[in-house]
Amino acid sequence: MADQEEEDLRIALRMSMQHSPPEPKRSKPRDTPAGVPAVSPDESPRRLQRELMAAAAEKRMLAARTGSASGLASSGLGLGSVSKIEKKEKNLGVESVNLGKELSQEEAKQLFSMVFGTEVSKDILAQWTNQGIRFSSDPETSMGLVQHEGGPCGVLAAIQAFVLKYILFSPDELSKSQFVAANNFASLTEDAKARALVRSMGEILFLCGDNKRAAVATLSVIRQKVEGSEDGLKEEIIGKALEGLSIESGYDLQKILRVDTYTSQASALQRLEEMIPIFQSRMGAMLFLISALLSRGLDSIQDDRDDPSLPLVTAPFGHASQEIVNLLLCGQAVPNVFDERIDLGGGMFLKGISRNVEVGFLTLLESLNFCKVGQYLKCPRWPIWVVGSESHYTVLFALDITVQDENELEERESQIRKAFDAQDQSGGGGFISVEGFHQVLKETSIKLPPEKLDHLCSTGFIVWSEFWQVILDLDKSMGGLKDSSGLMGKKVFDLYHFNGIAKSDLNGGQVTSGGETPVQRPRLTKLRVSVPPRWTPEEFMADVALSSGSGGNDSSGKDAEVAKPEPSQHAPLVDCIKTRWPRAICNWVGDPPSIV
């Protein structure tokens, strides 16, 4: 019996040294891109994979014969033989556990086409292969990721939002760190930022993998050289390895991409920490996007989408689509930002956000009535939002979690709006049927005077804006929001806006003999947000004039602060903020915050 087993082992070893078996016939020969050298059978990744499988088979044969220590001894295959097999794996190039999975030709082609489409410009490819995931070296914006190329901002902004979650708030307890309380981001250590980045990337990838798995994509040309290298040499090694490297097709992806999949969060975080130098390299943003897509699964990504034929990176400027942003924020690559889904009939649906999220999303497009952001994204667990404009993604956040606490007025507003949206089958268009309107009145206990009810229902459908004006003028006793005291809804708080694109910034310029010198760096802007106690700024300012003339001293310090606002300032970001706090008045010092 022992002789037979030894003969089986010899056969396995001989099989591992044989050439590749003939491939099955294909309807068309596999094209080799111009300039790419032909790969001989002896050098093909397929052979390397076969040899590793043979080595693994040898291990399994040994394992089958290790029922007892005496069994190992009698067979003559003790620990020494196991070491020989492990040594053989090492001689093949790298240990199998660290080699990573190579995508099949079909997977690589599908992945490239899904991200970039069939016709993608070299400029767009350059944008996505020249953006690392790196923190700003500027002390005031040291907690922020820097963007150098247009395009990957959607990926960077989503990661940034989660990084801020870990920097600003402990996930397990709502206590602020010392540097946050002092509003001193410059005191962040490199180690703290690195931990926040690793945990953020890990959380996003497991979110994409339904909290069951995370795929980590790296480059074969780098990882073997990086592993085990000293930290000071890694960046130099990576830079040399990436010289002349380009990704222009699915073939290129298959050739250089390696993917590890983890079901253990601890193992995934350890791998991410080891691979941080690679994610900091110029391929970092694209590698993380690929990791997220593979964590979700390519077929699941296509099922999430309303139109799977369109590329995830949009033409002609190479911006990240809403599907990419939604994937990173909520784990599903749905194309819309409203809550749940809209039934179009005939088994067709428009897919929206289906769950509560850790960090949220606001968009300028809602202020222009192009879409409606639902409550899931508007009211995340933490006061952090990715902000979308027509061409860029930035991040808005607060240091105080109570900015999301609803007062009496906001709670009532949310209740009415949620009931109205539940009847809105227009895709966020803001109108409902008469039948749906009566259901809203019933659910929210609103008692409209007969003449108001007849007027709203006269056209056969009810528009939100008209209905809302009626609610504002309706007394609280009848379910409305009219408050004669003018105190319901009063609020003042600070928000911060981060734009990772390096721009000229006079606020941070260094004074020279010639005056201020613009500095190219990311922008962090502090905004004071005042929510007036009445529904329009005009009414609010009229109240302020009356309060100033009365000379009353009976209000608290916070009330007095609300009663004496700075003149309102405007920028497109303010329109985004007003989609979350409709009556907000915003002020800042220096240049207006930019969302482009």
Which SSEs are present, and which pair or pack?
Elements: H1 2-16, H2 45-64, H3 69-75, H4 79-91, H5 96-99, H6 105-116, H7 122-128, H8 153-168, H9 178-181, H10 190-208, E1 214-219, H11 220-226, H12 231-241, H13 250-256, E2 257-262, H14 265-280, H15 284-296, H16 298-304, E3 313-314, E4 319-320, H17 322-330, E5 341-345, E6 348-351, E7 360-363, H18 364-367, H19 375-378, E8 384-388, E9 393-397, H20 408-423, E10 431-433, H21 434-444, H22 450-457, E11 461-463, H23 464-473, E12 491-512, E13 515-531, H24 537-550, H25 557-563, H26 572-580, E14 585-587
Parallel strand pairs: 7-8
Antiparallel strand pairs: 1-2, 3-4, 5-6, 8-9, 9-12, 10-11, 12-13, 13-14
State the main characteristics.
14 strands; alpha+beta; single chain; 45% helix; two-stranded antiparallel ribbon; six-stranded mixed β-sheet; 26 helices; 596 residues
